[in-house]
Write a structure and sequence with these properties.
Elements: H1 2-23, H2 37-62, H3 72-91, E1 111-116, E2 124-128, E3 133-136, E4 144-145
Antiparallel strand pairs: 1-2, 2-3, 3-4
Length: 157
């Protein structure tokens, strides 16, 4: 029994030492745990500045354009206006527009461009992917092909 126990123990010890030497690598990168506090503080300052800039932008979006202030009463009044408009739109079609089914799938074409004439706000232009420039003079209630479609070399559906 002693004769087999000693060689087996020796093999185990040699195997463990070999495994430890194999797993220990001298070329493994070392980790530097030193902290560059100047860089850390600069990054933190940049973050604080960006947060403050976001807060300023958000305030400007919500503030009353006439007074430049954000009043609680005005915020509540705005929320009430939005709720009333949503209820009105849900119960009463305020514009009097109805959706007209024109295709087998009831999906409009792909519109790539939409422009509003600055001198006439009710005049809109829409450019489609499949070709054609369309326009309306009544804010989108009725659309018709632009008169110069033939000169633009676009196809009409």
């Amino acid at each position: 029994m002693k004769r087999t126990l000693i060689p087996i123990s020796a093999l185990v010890v040699v195997g463990l030492v070999g495994t430890m030497m194999f797993l220990r690598r001298d070329d493994a990168p070392t980790v530097n745990y030193q902290v560059d506090y100047e860089t850390l503080e600069a990054a933190h300052e940049g973050r604080e500045q960006s947060v403050e800039a976001y807060k300023d932008w958000l305030f400007e979006q919500r503030a009353n354009p006439a007074t430049g202030k954000l009043e609680y009463k005005e915020v509540v009044a705005g929320i009430q206006q939005v709720r009333a408009a949503r209820q009105d739109a849900a119960t009463n079609r305020s514009l009097g527009l109805e959706w007209e089914l024109l295709g087998p799938t009831n999906i409009g074409g792909r519109t790539r461009a939409l422009a509003i004439d600055p001198s006439k706000p009710n005049r809109l232009y829409a450019g489609s992917v499949s070709g054609g420039l369309f326009m309306t003079d009544n804010g989108g209630s009725n659309w018709y092909p632009h008169p110069q479609n033939a000169q633009l070399e676009s196809t009409l559906i």
